[in-house]
């Protein structure tokens, strides 16, 4: 039996997420991002398509490198306005049974004691369907919002991250023993105090002396996602992440990232195959290839190069407005954006110019869309899996919600016919759906499991 | 026409909230607090009863003063386990149209930049039905959870609070002008950069240089609740709060608090009648008075004195386990719990003993329940309003959800028959429902309005 492809809908609590400018398309509904009905429809659609989850990105700050201001981002709604992603999950969970939720949260700015409770609450309310995409942040504008003058240096952010993870593992795994909660009405004992443990942590960056406020949730530690592609980020992912989102632009590049990541995970004593790796993908599908290419041209007429450049300038720290179209682009890697620049460096053989960059921005981003009939799209997705070793895809939206609806209606049945996509959900929590029955908690070889009391 | 009484359901994302021990009652469902269905049923019931809102308490930390440990609190589920309240709101909002949501959040521990976005997100998703109960915290155990050795001193917490409010007012009221967002697809302009303002704040406790991440929500600033009863807390409330929750144990005591609060508000140039004041109330109602008194006795047999003492020991900082039943209770007010002790001091003429205290704890708390037929309960509620000047009540639960269901089925119609309770919701946001049509935003005389750009 062929291995099943995993699918997440990749989204963000905002108007323009990856494919900028498409909010101006007459059928696009992304400007209803601030209503519950919009998200509940999206969740129902993803569950109808048996998607593993909805993966919600987040960023704290604005894209203000391009032309030295946030004006282009604001005009084109490039991830601004941007609302909190966690608050979408309870409403989407209420209208679904199986769909998972990967929520991005930046550990640089939230105290671990409160954050651990927030994630436990989500895991309770969703019945164990929550994942956390661990982000350490990269925007100077975010640091200024939080009262810092500049960002902490890149590698030191990951050191803080390792200690932060230790604190939240202790809270999630080590504070309440498995048999602490009795709910015994007759004996009038809700929980047994001797089975609760105060977490005393005296570290370099965090100090804590408290019991976790939440009783154990179905998964305890949420399913851990990570998306760092820098070397330090990959070490962090190999140690902590159960799902990784890689964004290699080419198959060769992605294959390298996947191999490296699985090797590093094995180095931490983990099962390399147990890490679920998602590649980013953008799909434009229609019943026939010709219709799909027409649809791409239609969408393309609404895309925004200005929005795409505003986004990419902040991703790389390079103000692309300062270059003429055919002038070679010089850049100096800075700490704040080393991962995006490493990605460029490995991808690019010939000199970069603005013209080449804009040519790549087909749908308002540098991500090249997969365009075609259901058969063509399925072929391409299967080829990616075969050639790169990824387990599945984070599908970004184009014109929403029709891009997800089209994928569910056209591509999912094709993948099912080929036996490479599930025809029903597995039972249990998100971690059990990914790892198998009875595996609701972190596996014993995961670093987080070492903080268990029993 | 008689003035309408306001009603909130007072609750908390936990098992034991105010009336401790009642979770052991066979019909009580509070141990389902960690499921969405439980809260959606509660919200639907409150909206069926035309309640103004659900008011969600919160506390960061555990009650560990009684016997010098948290054991009694843990055994009796006295606000531990305790999940995050904000995450309940989107799910409850999805099944209601009018119900408001007052969410408690402690400003001592959350960066204003992130918190402001969280509240704006809730206000968007609920269509303008969100209130914020501003808390500065009082538990040392919470401070230890957040990495501090002891709490900041009481009055200085309110000074930090005033500056925190200034920062969030600037973000909510001053960052995006009213006509900043165009959503103009044809012109390809989502928002006009010249209508957005970076908030530059260099204060004693906070530094910020950022635009607010969220576009203006229906109310911009959420409806502001406060519950501080210390002198410094009342000054804070008179300056900022639009709704105040007072907890005077007697009518005379409550009347004094209400008068003081309205006078102080007038001193800040505000309309004293524009502040909506809620008193705490616990109601046990049945079709006849005799049945209600039987029901009280039934409930009472499940109440927990140990749980009530664990709670009250932390509220006051006095370990009541150290006293014999008839020994006069000595206490020294400490900063951390000055408000509860001020309340005792003003209430108590004769010496305090443990026996007197326990006698008062009828249903697992010091709150004396109102018990009777619908007519008797309505009489009592009206007498409270007439004699104290409060606008309404925060109704705490006893055996849940039946206590709210009984109130909605029995007391609400009686209040409506008397013309003192609404028969339909007013249109608009929560602030408009409280203040009148067209008043979705803070009034001009409120301190928060001074931070508007236009």
TrEMBL record, chains A, B:
One GO MF term: monooxygenase activity
Protein name: LLM class flavin-dependent oxidoreductase
Organism: Rhodovastum atsumiense
Keywords (A to Z) from UniProt: Flavoprotein, FMN, Monooxygenase, Oxidoreductase
Family statement: Belongs to the NtaA/SnaA/DszA monooxygenase family.
Domain of life according to the entry: Bacteria
The keyword Oxidoreductase is assigned to this record: yes
InterPro entries noted in UniProt: Diverse_substr_monoxygenases, Luciferase-like_dom, Luciferase-like_sf, NTA_MOA
The Luciferase-like domain, residue ranges: 28-391
Annotated FMN binding sites: 58, 104, 154, 158, 229-230
Keyword Flavoprotein: yes
């Amino acid at each position: 039996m062929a291995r099943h492809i995993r699918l997440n809908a990749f989204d963000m609590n905002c108007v323009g997420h990856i494919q900028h400018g498409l909010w101006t398309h007459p059928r696009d509904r992304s400007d209803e991002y601030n209503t519950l009905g919009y998200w509940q429809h999206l969740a129902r659609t993803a569950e109808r398509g048996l998607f593993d989850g909805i993966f919600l990105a987040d960023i704290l700050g604005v894209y203000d490198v391009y032309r030295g201001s946030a004006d282009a981002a604001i005009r084109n709604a490039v991830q601004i306005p941007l609302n909190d992603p966690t608050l979408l999950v309870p409403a989407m969970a209420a209208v679904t049974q199986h769909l998972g939720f990967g929520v991005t949260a930046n550990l640089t700015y939230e105290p671990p004691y409160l954050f651990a409770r927030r994630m436990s609450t989500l895991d309770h309310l969703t019945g164990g369907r929550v994942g956390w995409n661990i982000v350490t942040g990269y925007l100077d504008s975010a640091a200024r919002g939080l009262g810092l003058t500049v960002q902490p240096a890149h590698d030191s952010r990951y050191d803080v991250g390792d200690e932060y993870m230790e604190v939240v593992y202790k809270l999630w795994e080590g504070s309440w023993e498995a048999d602490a909660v009795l709910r015994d009405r007759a004996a009038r004992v809700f929980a047994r105090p001797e089975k609760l443990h105060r977490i005393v942590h005296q570290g370099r960056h965090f100090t804590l002396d408290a019991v976790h406020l939440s009783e154990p949730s179905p998964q305890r530690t949420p399913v851990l996602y990570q998306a760092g592609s820098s070397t330090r980020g990959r070490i962090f992912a190999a140690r902590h992440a159960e799902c990784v989102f890689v964004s290699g632009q080419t198959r060769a590049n992605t294959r390298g990232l996947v191999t490296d990541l699985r090797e590093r995970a094995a180095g931490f004593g983990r099962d390399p195959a147990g890490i679920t790796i998602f590649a980013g993908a953008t799909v434009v599908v229609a019943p026939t290839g010709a219709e799909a290419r027409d649809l791409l041209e239609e969408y393309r007429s609404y895309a925004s190069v200005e929005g795409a450049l505003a986004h990419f300038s902040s991703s790389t720290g390079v103000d692309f407005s300062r270059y003429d179209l055919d002038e070679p682009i010089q850049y100096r890697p800075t700490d704040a954006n080393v991962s995006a620049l490493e990605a460029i460096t490995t991808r690019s053989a010939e000199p970069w110019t603005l013209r080449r960059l804009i040519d790549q921005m087909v749908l308002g981003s540098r991500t090249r869309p997969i365009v075609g009939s259901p058969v063509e799209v399925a072929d391409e997705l299967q080829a990616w899996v075969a050639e790169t070793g990824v387990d599945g895809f984070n599908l970004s939206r184009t014109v929403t919600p029709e891009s997800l609806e089209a994928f569910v209606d056209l591509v999912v049945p094709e993948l099912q016919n080929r036996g490479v996509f599930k025809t029903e959900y597995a039972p249990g929590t998100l971690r059990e759906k990914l790892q198998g029955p009875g595996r609701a908690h972190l596996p014993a070889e995961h670093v987080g499991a070492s903080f268990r009391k029993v």
